[in-house]
Amino acid sequence: MTDTTPSEQSRPAKDRSWLMRTYAGHSTAEASNELYRTNLAKGQTGLSVAFDLPTQTGYDPDSALARGEVGKVGVPIMHMGEMRKLFDQIPLTEMNTSMTINATAMWLLAMYQVAAEEQNPGMDPAEVAAKLAGTTQNDIIKEYLSRGTYVFPPEHSLRLISDMIAYTVHQIPKWNPINICSYHLQEAGATPVQEIAYSMCTAISVLDAVKASGQVSEEDFGKVVGRISFFVNAGVRFIEEMCKMRAFVELWDEITRERYGVEDPKMRRFRYGVQVNSLGLTEAQPENNVQRIVLEMLAVTLSKNARARAVQLPAWNEALGLPRPWDQQWSLRLQQVLAYESDLLEYDDLFDGSPVVEAKVAELVAGAKEEIDRVQAMGGAIAAVDSGYMKSELVSSHARRRAAIEAGDEIIVGVNKFTTTEPSPLTADLDAAIMVADPRAEEAAKASLEAWKAERDDAAVAEALAALAAAAKTDANLMEATLAAARAGATTGEWAGTLREVFGEFRAPTGVSGAVGAAEAGAELAAVRERVKATGEELGVKLRMLVGKPGLDGHSNGAEQVAVRARDAGFEVIYQGIRLTPEQIVSAAVAEDVHVVGLSILSGSHMSLVPSVVDGLREAGLGDVPVIVGGIVPESDAKALIASGVAAVYTPKDFSLTEIMADIVEVIRKANDLS
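^ that's the sequence the OP posted. Answer follows.
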């Protein structure tokens, strides 16, 4: 007798599943560590660390720019003491850790390596490094295009990336030193063709830079290609998205073979992780997000020959605010049901030989090649960033998508169709449906920073930072100097500040001036234009709108779309891009004599930054200039903002930009006592 049925005995062996991760980190290192260990106990097989915006952009928590941002969208890690707390009781030599970090990637990898050395005092540091496995995102080009957490100019950022790649190939061979990230390109509006093309252009620029640096021999260059990984987005059009992944596989194999002469097919393999689409998650009827997430997960798992190596899923309520541990558990269980209950992993590729799939893949490859050739003719990805070409193309694509949604040509269930709904028990208490970041996190981080500086050897830190600055002025690999700074006790802000002094800073093109907005003015937009024009004539001047991004939040897609639609509606638009202090926004409002200020914040720092702008306008004598706010703002916060003097608050459920423009005109009229 056996305990299995005949059908069970005949089942084929399952393939190994993908790494299952949850993108997580919040408030403090201690709270994040507890969350990581809990998730690992629930069956998560890898870590994916979210850092807060000051850490991502190289500021310590006591910086003026960090105000309101500490611990909001991730965990603050400003020195080695916090890195130790983050991975307490988590053996780093046995873990696979993904760190979503870009401009400061070298610094965070150095602290991660030092933390692993400290966990293994009896092991040679070189042996510890050889055991480390994981990924640093480290794709700075997409930061200039979409995410906004860049620090240094492109050429210097590329130097840091090249140094990291060369170091890891020789010292941390199981580490993926860069995760070329098309995820945020899709969030910024990229079509599948643009997502493929711009990712490949980024990869070409990185590989060319590593080759030109001379730090890796020709014999070892295949190892560089083999450690390049990608981080991809998957939208709800899951057949097209699955074909996109097959197109990625085909094109990467061709580029690495023909351009770089890599003979080993294993080194040419397209290796990618994925977080499925957050752009398509809706605040309206958010329960629909669960089936969206499942469809998006299928796009990157169904096709064996183009299957993700690691998957992390958003939570159903991310359009409402910060997910709770239970929400993250739900997303993890979606992966586990597919991997362990279904028979997906028992079969070869389901789509080989499909004429429909082959035709769609060929179409995507051909379109991507055309766009790659266009960018390469400009001088490559860096040149296309400097010129603003890629940014303008993304803003235009996003504008077309939004226009299609508003027109009803692209259906979003629960948003622009099938909007009648029963009350949802999931959102009956909206304040309880999300997690609130610890309001004491900023003060705790400042206290940790102060205590750390009081206990360290300041002379050793100064010496290490001086050596880092000196090395940055040469062509030396900066990883060793960065490791020395971490061991000496330098802080995140000090490391980045030292390199800012040498490399300078950078402001990326916004893409708004060159973007194509509404192709045709329908009746609704035409009516708003007339109202804008008439109001301007009554005031004796063209209406001017300042669109501001206070704080460190680099998610500029919403602000860009508002700016483009406002321009289409007849406003004169002032948009200076991301990462401004409230004081700078107030100064711009005074200098431009604007009629309305629109603030976009998605990092959760609205309750800190918006009142600072409102108060600043009052102090500058512009208390009558209305302020409107857009972002992921819980209902209770929206009421508090309006009570404090904000004229209107818009959240993701307010998808019609033209209706928002109509509202803004009326806000201006009311503020100016026009009947």
